[in-house]
C-alpha cells in the first residue's frame, strides 16, 4: 500500500507543478489587468485562476476538469464582452472621455504655448552613448542626457563641442528630445519647440487645487465629476474629459432627445420590418423552389438543384459586393437593362425606399437556398397518403398544399424561422458592405441612415464617427440584447411546443 501511495504522489508532482505555474501566470495577469485599469476582466481572470487551482489541483473535482475549459471560454469571450458593453452603456465613454481623471490632468497640464521670443537653434553632440545639447546663440551646453526617458538637464557656459550630429541624425532623436527639459543658468526651463529649436514653453494649465486648474489667461477651471469635464466659470467644458458613471443618462437621451429618439425609433421599426420581410421572402422563395424541384415530371433536377444552391455556396461578402456593383446607379448592369427596356434609371443608393428594397432583394437572394434545403427535407416527411386522400376528395393541388402540406411543415420550420429572424435582426455585414446605412436620415445629431438596422446603427455610432459615443452605443446595444433575448426565448418556447406536438402525435 505504501509503495502504491508513493507512486501516486510521484505521478501527482508534475501535475501539481504545472497547476502551480499556470495559476501563478493567471494571478500575475489578473494583477496586471487591475493595475492598468481593467478591474472587471482582472476579476474574471482571478476567478479562473482560483477555479483552475482548485479543480486541477484536487482529485475531488476530477469530473469538473472536462467542463472547466468551456466555462472559462464562456466567461472570457461571452460573459465579459456582454457585461462590459452593458457597463459602458451607463458611462459617458466617448472619444472626448477616454481617459481617467489623473491622466486628464496630466494631459491638460502638459499642454503649453511656445514663447517665440525665446526660441533659439540647437545642435546635438554625441559622447559614448550619451548626448549633450548645444545652444550656439547663448553658448550653453547641457549636462549629459540619454534621451530615453523624461529628463531635466542643466545648461552651463561652455565652448562649442567638436562632434556634432548632422540634422538627419538629430531628427531621429526627436522622441527623446520631446521628453527633455533644459534649465538655463538663470533658472528658466526650456523645452524642445520643434525640429530646429528650444524655447520657453508657457503651460496652458496649472493645477492649483485638488479639482482645480488655472489657465494661462487667469481663467479658473473646476472639475465636474457628473459629466467628466473641467469647466470654466461660464460652464464651458474643456476637452479631453474622463470617464464617469452617468446612470441612466444615455437611455434618457435615447428616449427624450428628438435628434436621437427620432432616428432610433425609425431604425428600430425598420429593423423589425427588414428582418420580417427577409424571413418571409426567403421562406416563400425557398419553399416554392423546393416544391418545384419535387415535381416528378421535372427533368434535369440535379442541375437545377446545384444552380439554385450556388448562392449559398459563394461567400456572402463576395455576393454582396457583386450586387453593389450590379445596382450601381451609373454603370450597374441592372440600371443598364432597365434603361434599355423601360427607360428607367432608379437611384438605388440615394432614394430611401429603393435602397431598402435593394437591401431586402439582396438578402432574399442570400437566404433562400438555406430555406430551400430545409423545405426539401421537410416536404419528404409529409405522408403521400394524406395528399392522395385529399385529391380523391376533389381538392386542387393548391388546396392540397395549403391544407395538407403547409400545416405539417410549419411546426418544424417555426424554430428555424425565429432563429433566422434573430440573425437578420443583427445582419451587420449585409448593411455595412452594401449601403453602409446610407442614405442618411436628415435632421439627426448622430450618424443614422435610412437602411441602417440597429446593429449597423450602433457600429456607426461607436466606431464610424468623429465623435465616437461608446456609452450611447452601449445603451442601444443593451436594448438590442433585450430584444434578441426575447426572440431567443420565443425560439426556445416554439421548439418545446413543437417537440410536445410531435410526442403527442406519436403517442
Automatic annotation (TrEMBL):
It comes from Paracoccus aestuarii. The complex is composed of two ATP-binding proteins (MalK), two transmembrane proteins (MalG and MalF) and a solute-binding protein (MalE). PROSITE patterns: ABC_TM1. The chain crosses the membrane at residues 12-34, 40-57, 66-90, 267-291, 303-323, 354-379, 400-423, 470-492. This is Maltose/maltodextrin transport system permease protein. One of its GO terms (biological process) is maltodextrin transmembrane transport. GO terms for molecular function: ABC-type maltose transporter activity. Gene3D superfamilies: D-maltodextrin-binding protein, MBP (2.40.430.10), MalF N-terminal region-like (3.10.650.10), MetI-like (1.10.3720.10). Pfam families: BPD_transp_1 (PF00528), MalF_P2 (PF14785). The gene is malF. The lineage of its organism: Bacteria, Pseudomonadati, Pseudomonadota, Alphaproteobacteria, Rhodobacterales. It comes from the Bacteria. It is found in: Cell inner membrane; Cell membrane. Belongs to the binding-protein-dependent transport system permease family. MalFG subfamily. GO terms for cellular component: maltose transport complex.
